[in-house]
Design a protein that fits this description.
Two copies of one chain form a homodimer. The first copy, chain A, is α+β, with helices and mostly antiparallel strands. The first copy, chain A, is 15% helix and 41% strand. Chain A has helices at 55-63, 76-84, 92-96, 154-157, 165-168; strands spanning 2-4, 14-15, 17-22, 28-33, 36-40, 45-51, 65-70, 100-102, 109-111, 116-128, 131-144, 172-174, 179-189. At the A-B interface, strand 1, strand 2, strand 5, strand 6 and helix 2 of A face strand 1, strand 2, strand 5, strand 6 and helix 2 of B.
Chain lengths: 201, 201
């Protein structure tokens, strides 16, 4: 039986992403968000929503660029710290020991230690309630070499050079409950496992 | 060492969500997408991006409503099927044996068997490349009773009545690679595990 949870946010799953920007003086800054997702395939775009009172909000508007940095499970503590602190009086890179790396294609730094870094050029800004949704066109994705290479069938499947999610080990956030989770087992191949339903069943 | 993957979409993790709508004749329809995410907290909103040539695109425009249905691992095959078939000549509910349930608050059906159903009222439409991004204000979340109740500390933590992600067992999609994954282990409490970094370390 179904029960109403009310007009709240238990929409699962949501990602844990660290947004990298340069501040007004050009110093690297970062913040953690779970409010975002892919919003276009052609061109490849990703959107993140930030409250207007965050520093990162102003920095994205100024530099028209940001990075999405995907922390690995091993960085859960750092990702949490980046989310609960403010860059106003704190150098979050120095405090965490993480390394800002200048993106080649956009005016934003990425997090060197995180396995996946997505360089985005701001292409659209939309106001939604207390948040501003920033849409970034993905200009490049930098991946740590050790997480690249999906499986033995990569050359057959055309997945050479693509990061393996089981090596990236991204983190999920559970809204309201406030916990982080890792990713689990492979459930099968998309555009394939459903073929046995319907006509072929 | 970092390696460029190019301007593509290995942004992890992305969700597997089934979007429920009524068609032009009022018959229930659904499609699967991984292009979406939370985009506002106040009011609670979620966005999904659909190509203009999908049937669901027109149905959302017509009814100004949609549901986000979160399949459980047990429904991975159905979710895949819903993603690879078109509602043009097919009743996907009949084919999968899933049950459309009329939402109380919005003009869209939800999937009875999926553990989490999010009822959304369309509040904004944004064009991005070949996709249209539909922003829905969450009017209610329906959860299967068996997935509600997070842990023994629910009354202390204020999480009574909230679905437990470890019971919901939502599915992740890996762009480009084309695999589905489950969720994994609890990595700790948000706004907490990072406190040991910095001043307190």
């Amino acid at each position: 039986m179904k029960k109403s949870s009310g007009a709240k946010l238990p929409v699962y799953p949501t990602p844990v992403w660290v947004v990298g920007t340069y501040d007004n003086e050009g110093k690297p800054n970062m913040m953690t968000t779970s409010w975002g997702g892919v919003c276009s395939l052609t061109p490849p775009c990703v959107a993140v929503s930030l409250r207007k009172n965050t520093h990162t909000h102003g920095y994205i508007v100024k530099h028209k660029a940001f990075t999405i940095n995907v922390p690995s499970e091993a960085h859960a503590r750092e990702a949490d710290y980046i989310g609960i602190t403010s860059g106003r009086n704190l150098d979050k890179f120095a405090a965490t020991g993480l390394t800002p790396v200048r993106s080649k294609l956009v005016d934003a730094p990425y997090v060197g230690e995180f396995p996946l870094n997505v360089e985005c050029r701001l292409i659209q800004t939309v106001e939604i309630g207390q948040h501003t949704q920033f849409t970034g066109e993905i200009m490049d994705v930098m991946a740590e070499e050790s997480v690249i290479g999906v499986d033995r069938d990569a050359s057959v499947l055309g997945t050479e050079g693509i990061p393996d999610i089981e090596k990236v080990k991204p983190i999920l956030y559970v809204p309201q409950v406030g916990t982080y989770h890792g990713i689990g087992r492979n459930l099968g191949r998309a555009h394939s496992i459903g073929k046995t339903i319907g006509g072929e069943r």
